[in-house]
Amino acid sequence: MMLDATKKDVHRHLLEKELESVGIRLNKQKPNIYFKVKKGGGISFNSTCPLTKIDEKLVQMILHEYKIFNAEVLFREDCTADELIDVICANRVYLPCLYVYNKIDQISIEEVDRIARQPNSVVVSCNMKLNLDYLLDILWEDLSLIRVYTKKPGQPPDFSDGLILRRGVTVEHVCHAIHRTLAAQFKYALVWGTSTKYSPQRVGTNHMMHDEDVIQIIKKINAFIC
Asked: What InterPro entries does its record include (predicted)?
């Protein structure tokens, strides 16, 4: 999230409020609450830890507001009523967020120090090109990015233009990143890199890719694509 350092925290709070209103939760984990709607038997409530922010009566009132009269609810952590509502709605998105404060050249060094010490915050100046290299390193680390290089048959890998993907992607995700129709034509792939036991290794769509792996995809029609 790009913010203006000269506006202190007002800009940030407004953006966070807007995102909260549409169901986007920044830098939060999904509440550890087991919830399942049943066909009968009423509401079964239990917890594995002491609850200080909610009780069984409030849980029943919230469920009744959503026309739910038969359900199983298990709290595995001390959650709030709002977090229970998030679980019931089941349409919330939990995303990591890095707050990037620009225009630090227009504020005092004390204010820069205060902002930089906040969690998930980076200070930069695009105008004076201050701290941009550090921002790039933090983005790469926090977003868990990897580089995957493609290879044409009979040619060396193209290291000048790799695919930037999230860590934990499979060959199927690589196919979609190259072209949306490639997965349907996929036959197998040859992969070089740390994700394989030997190179090249013939793999399927479920193979997990590592950083700086090289891939050559072969289609069902016996044609090659990179």
From this structure: Beta-grasp_dom_sf, DRG, G_OBG, GTP-binding_2, P-loop_NTPase, TGS, TGS-like
